[in-house]
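Q: I have 240 residues here and want to know how they pack in 3D. Can you give me a structure?
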Amino acid sequence: MRELVQIYKPQLVVLMETKVDFKTMGFFFNGMGFTASAHVDPIGRSGGIWMLWNPDIVNVRVVEASLQQITAIISRQDYPNWLLSTVYVSLNNNLRDNLWDQLEEVAQNMTEPWLVDGDFNDFTTRNEKQSLQGNQNQKLSQDQRRGRKFNERVDNCKLMDLGCTGPRLTWFNNKKGWANTMARKGCQGYLCSILIEQSVNVEMGNISVVREFSDVFPNELPERLVDKEIEFTIDVVPGT
């Protein structure tokens, strides 16, 4: 990891499925410049989310944290704010549904571009899973329902899949022969939602007060207005 940080020089790093408490690694990350953090420690050997950043370069304000996700507003000088949700989704169906309920609530109140990354423990189509276990027709039906539900949740949050590079199947269960199962999941999941604002080109001649006092206003306004005090006088004509 130290070598990767030296090569790519990230200012914010997210780690998932950490398996150990953050306190055991804090000094290690401090030595690489990540002196600020938000973390959800694993339960036993399951789960764990660490969000690390360099506070001299980037500001991270956590707005929500739970066992399955950390959501934060990311801000940096001269760049627009954006929202980051890092997830490690439980295999428990009820907990999984709770997380997606939380993400849908975020989507309803979102005002910045939003990136959701992490381990969804799910797949979008049957092509993202390869298994020879059990009744294949039954497994196919179950996987289709599961994939359909996952896609519906993604659509409800108005997210789109950014895709990935590397092997098509990124996880396997360490079993051989007929018991082997492979799937595309893990840290290959990146979903984003972008707000598109339609800009309106306002012409000077379309503003009523400008038309009325055309001799006062310039034909073009400067790109950046200067905020300063201006001295002026109003000559009053007697009898008016």
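Q: Anything worth noting?
A: Confidence is low (pLDDT under 50) at residues 178-182. The chain has one domain: 2-193.
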